[in-house]
Each structure stands twice: as structure tokens, then as C-alpha cells.
Design goal:
A seven-stranded mixed beta sheet has the order 1-2-3-4-5-7-6, sandwiched between helices. The radius of gyration is 15 Å and the shape is globular. The chain is of the alpha+beta class and about 160 residues long. Helix content is about 25%, strand content about 25%.
């Protein structure tokens, strides 16, 4: 498995492919509903929403990143100054041990383009795999909240490394 990543602006074909990805339980929580597909595609390709397609060394679409407001979840307290990062991996890439690197690459990209003081990630509380991945990348729990639909989330933060 290649460890080289490349990024590109999210295109409509990329967004359509990502929206066909289906996850096993309990990660099927992340599966889009058919009702939202056109709205989701529109949001993912809107440049101001900061979505990026992620490809491996073989130019295969393996995931995506998003930054800023698109990585936030309704109900959380985002008043602290930090760059929100979010993303997802193709289902067959889950559990392969590359998650921490995936998070670190998102931080490297975020640092290069936004130079934040802190990074922040919001993860569904049941997603212990993603929580561990963020913790391995140096994030610490900041808050826990329940969204209006009853889903619990954890907000994690970490200081951005400064050039030294």
C-alpha cells in the first residue's frame, strides 16, 4: 500500500464517488442518505467549503479532507481559535493502520495553508477507532456534547507545531 498522498480540489466526479462509499456497522452512521446526494455534492465542490480529494500514489481516490466550518458538528462549542479538520477514508482503507498518518497529513496541509495555532477535530463518540487515531496524532479531549438527534460527539484539540 502506497504511503504517498496527493491532493486536489474536490470535483463533482470525486464527490459522487465518495457518496457511493458504504461502511459496515456502526460506521454506516457516515453513509449519506439518498435524499441529500445533490445537496452534498454541491457542498463538497463549493470552493469556499474547503474540501480536498485525497489520492494515493496510484492516483486512486482514497479519501477526502475538509477544513473550517465544514468539519464542525452542530451543537459543539467552536469559540476557541483553532482550525477544524475533518475527513473520511474509503471503506476498504479503514483499520489498515494508516489513520494516524492520514490525520498528520491533514495537519501538515492545514499548517501550510492556514498556519493555525491549534487544530480541532470532532468525532462521533462511538467511533473509538477515530478517537484513538486522533489521540495517537497528539489530540486531547476538549469537550463532549450531544447533537439534537441524540448522537454524542467528542471535540479534540492539539497545538500546531511551530517552525523552530
Amino acid at each position: 500500500m502506497s504511503t504517498k498522498f496527493s491532493f486536489s480540489k474536490m470535483t463533482e466526479p470525486d464527490a459522487r464517488e465518495i457518496l457511493t462509499w458504504r461502511y459496515d456497522e456502526p460506521y454506516d452512521f457516515y453513509d449519506p442518505t439518498d435524499i441529500d446526494v445533490d445537496k452534498d455534492i454541491e457542498a463538497m465542490v463549493e470552493p469556499t467549503n474547503l474540501y480536498l480529494a485525497v489520492r494515493d500514489g496510484d492516483d486512486q481516490l482514497i479519501g477526502y479532507y475538509c477544513f473550517g466550518g465544514e468539519a464542525q458538528v452542530s451543537g459543539g462549542d467552536y469559540s476557541e481559535n483553532a482550525l477544524d479538520i475533518g475527513g473520511g477514508s474509503r471503506p476498504d482503507r479503514l483499520g489498515t493502520g494508516s489513520g494516524e498518518m492520514f490525520v498528520r497529513v491533514a495537519m501538515d496541509f492545514g499548517k501550510m495553508f492556514f498556519n493555525p495555532e491549534k487544530f480541532r477535530a470532532t468525532v462521533a463518540a462511538f467511533n473509538t477507532r477515530a478517537l484513538r487515531m486522533c489521540e495517537k496524532a497528539g489530540f486531547v479531549w476538549s469537550q463532549r456534547f450531544t447533537r439534537a438527534d441524540g448522537t454524542e460527539f467528542v471535540v479534540l484539540v492539539r497545538e500546531a507545531e511551530k517552525e523552530g
